[in-house]
Write a structure and sequence with these properties.
The chain is an alpha/beta fold. It has helices at about 45-50, 90-105, 110-115, 130-145, 160-175, 190-195, 220-230; strands spanning about 5-15, 20-25, 25-30, 35, 60-65, 65-70, 75-80, 150-155, 180-185, 200-205, 205-210. The chain has a single domain (about 5-230), classed as 3-Layer(aba) Sandwich (Rossmann fold), CATH 3.40.50.300. The protein has seven helices and eleven strands. Belongs to the ABC transporter superfamily.
């Protein structure tokens, strides 16, 4: 029997009378890289915001680590939702120091996560001087500070050049071996196809497909079939 680190059941979120997420039931296997896919505006970010407590569900259930979702579980979850919140006038190390103070974490985590995301040698360079890829990696470093068991990344490849995307791909691939389960939202199918082992496809706020996937599977064809079917 598959062990699910996180499950949602009939998850819904309304803004006024408009459903942004409508009955989504996710099953995230422990130790997997799960790709949450869908067109822009499909409901991916809204779903992830509910998983991280940034939005309250209108209906449905979230189970994580075998228990109903509670705020205490955020200590075991790291997340990068939309753009990373960085202090542009501070270095990478100083940005992380702010977050260790806020989170009550030991400062010795800073060097470890900077090494993980390959930002250990940025010295006195401030975040405002970083490339988009470096900013994304610093955002991931912040998410890693608490040694999370679940890492949630929302469109982490946005704005990256091909070199930055390759670096990010290699970084994400390394996480399951370190004991992390990853949920990765994206609309860039070529990148996701090389990373994930499970996918969920959302269209118009509804989950249209979910299952394991091999790296040689035609993800684009599967995606188009799910999304086009959703629009009929």
């Amino acid at each position: 029997m598959t062990a699910y680190l996180l499950e949602t059941r009939n998850l819904k979120k309304y803004f006024g009378r408009q459903p942004a997420v409508n009955g989504v039931s996710l099953q995230i296997p422990a130790g997997s890289i799960y790709g949450l896919l869908g067109p822009n505006g499909a409901g991916k970010t809204t779903t992830l915001k509910m998983l991280t407590g940034l939005l309250r569900p209108s209906n449905g259930e979230i189970t994580v680590f075998g228990e109903p979702w509670q705020r205490k579980h955020l200590e075991r979850i790291g997340a990068l939702i939309e753009s990373p919140a960085l202090y542009g006038n501070l270095t990478a190390q100083e940005n992380l120091l702010v977050h260790t103070k806020l989170m009550g974490l030991p400062n010795d985590r800073i060097d470890a996560v900077l090494e993980t995301v390959d930002l250990k040698n940025t010295g006195s360079k401030t975040a405002a001087q970083f490339s988009t890829g470096m900013k994304q990696r610093l955002g991931i470093a912040i998410a890693l500070l608490g040694s999370p068991e679940l890492l949630i990344l929302d469109e982490p490849a946005n704005g990256l050049d091909p070199f930055g995307i390759q670096e990010l791909r290699e970084l994400i691939r390394s996480f399951p071996a370190k004991g992390m389960t990853v949920i990765l939202s994206s609309h860039i199918l070529t990148e996701v196809a090389q990373l994930v082992d499970h996918i969920g496809i959302i269209s118009d706020g509804k989950l249209k497909y979910q299952g394991a996937i091999s790296h040689d599977e035609d993800l684009e064809a599967l995606f188009m079939q799910a999304v086009r079917g959703a629009k009929k």
